[in-house]
Design a protein that fits this description.
This protein has 474 residues and is of the alpha+beta class. The protein has 16 helices and 17 strands. 36% of the residues lie in helices and 14% in strands.
């Protein structure tokens, strides 16, 4: 897909369905009346500086407003079904420096709300609502979101977040389209990296071209780019991106574009040269590829991520035993001991949406932090099953973290007997392999939203790029 087609498609997305979302949240609250009050994110400067902090809209506010503008808030009156947006007053003396936000008329046309007011009118309107509904509940996300100097007889700061989370778990057609666009942009950016990786000297160049591609199409980053080469890929959330590529076997690139506040989360692992630098690197990649393919094939409504997570571990164990890295036990014994978590320490996937790790309070995988978190199971059997409309990631991996394996596994009598240290020495340079796609759960199974090349398709792009004069943006 070319850049121009993505730009044209972006123009065709309909108005964000804020009113539909507010009504859905009210239904989850199951009350005939009450007022929902949501704060947008205010703009701030860095401490001891006049430089602005990077601004990012509060996602709970955005879900019920579709407004990506600083210093706003909204109310939704459940009994009257009225969604009201409050925007900052335009300050003429600041327009020259900062530009201006929307006018009331512009906001009324742009957003799916019933009324638009200036922020200065909010307190008067809250007083009017309180007088007319003295026994109704005032819903806020957190205690510190209560309007200063405005006491309410009934304030609830617990139920609203849960209600919005339950709604956000199931995506509507607008949200799915935004996430589909985010994945399209991610595919363009990842492909730009593949076409140019043969010329790059450092991890920083990988990050630079990925961000360049996203920004050029009008997208942001869903999360900081992870461009981990060699042993750095054994650090799950590696963030430095500042080391040279020379002498490294693989790159694990975990990077996703954000489109209209909706995220993508895509990981690809590939050799820098376009061919496998070692049998060890290729073999680990093939195991992870098998883990992902089998888990994706098992997706559908009613399926539990726990079962797929276990499947991924069993495939990993079988593969590592075939390579001789794991030994001295059966697959079942190694699984029960938990030794495979030394090589695959994280969960199989997570919700995706307005956040990369979306709606954390409605998990499909629960992390147990009992004892040593490195040795605890990252998924519990009592988690709810997948439902139609969920968007999740499937991201298995195998890693060779010197620090973690030495700290928690090779020093443990429970685990060390199953790990062949001599064979393991040949795999440190692989670092880590992760492959991650974004999947929509459908009535009959799933739709893979991620179109980023992987496997042999990715290698083919690397090889062709190294023999061409291609440059990103040309």
């Amino acid at each position: 897909m070319n850049i121009r087609s993505i730009e044209l498609r972006a123009e065709g997305i309909n108005k964000y369905p804020a009113k539909q979302h507010a009504r859905a949240v009210a239904r989850k609250l199951a009350q005939p009346d009450g007022l929902i009050y949501l704060l947008g994110q205010y703009a701030f400067t860095i401490e001891d500086s006049d430089q602005a902090k990077t601004w990012r809209q509060r996602r709970y506010f955005y879900y019920c407003s579709g407004v990506d503008v600083p210093n706003c808030c909204l109310t939704y009156d459940i009994s009257t079904d009225v969604l009201s947006l409050y925007i900052p007053e335009i300050k003429p003396e600041r327009v020259l420096w900062e530009g201006r936000g929307p006018t009331i008329e512009e906001a009324e046309n742009r957003y799916d709300v019933d009324s638009v007011y200036l922020n200065g009118q909010l307190f008067d309107h809250l007083d009017q609502w309180k007088k007319g509904s003295p026994t109704s509940i005032f819903y806020i996300l957190h205690k510190n979101h209560r309007p200063v100097g405005k006491p309410f007889s009934k304030v609830d700061c617990e139920k609203l977040k849960r209600a919005i989370d339950l709604c956000r778990v199931i995506k509507d057609t607008h949200e799915i389209e935004c996430m589909r666009r985010a994945n399209e942009i991610s595919a363009v950016a990842h492909t730009a990296v593949l076409r140019n990786i043969g010329r790059f000297k450092s991890e920083a160049q990988i990050q630079g071209i990925f961000e360049d591609a996203c920004i050029s199409i009008g997208a942001k980053q869903s999360y900081p780019v992870i461009a981990a080469s060699g042993e750095n890929a054994g650090t799950l959330h590696y963030a430095k991106n500042n080391e040279p590529l020379q002498g490294r076997q693989l790159v694990c690139l975990d990077a996703g574009a954000e489109f209209q506040c909706y995220t993508s989360d895509v990981t690809r692992t590939f050799p820098i040269s376009g061919s496998w630098p070692s049998a060890e690197a290729k073999n680990i990649y093939c195991i992870v590829q098998m883990m992902q393919e089998h888990c994706i094939e098992g997706l559908g409504p009613g399926v539990k991520m726990y079962d797929l997570h276990v499947l991924a571990h069993k495939i990993a164990i079988a593969g590592l035993m075939a390579l001789g890295i794991l030994h001295n036990g059966t697959e079942a014994e190694i699984f029960e001991a938990g030794t495979s978590r030394g090589f695959y320490p994280h969960g199989l996937g997570h919700h995706l949406g307005l956040e990369t790790h979306d709606v954390l309070d409605v998990p499909i995988m629960r992390y147990s932090m009992e004892d040593d978190p490195a040795l605890s199971a990252p998924c519990k059997v009592d988690q709810p099953p997948l439902e139609e409309g969920m968007v999740i990631t499937i991201e298995p991996g195998i890693y060779f973290s010197r620090y973690e394996l030495n700290r928690a596994y090779l020093s443990s009598p429970v685990h060390s007997k199953y790990i062949n240290r001599e064979v393991l020495e040949d795999y440190w340079g692989v670092g880590g392999v992760r492959i991650e796609d974004d999947l929509l759960i459908t009535a009959n199974g799933y739709e893979n939203l991620t179109k980023t090349p992987k496997g042999e398709a990715a290698l083919d792009i690397i090889r062709k790029g190294s023999h061409s004069r291609y440059r990103w943006g040309e």
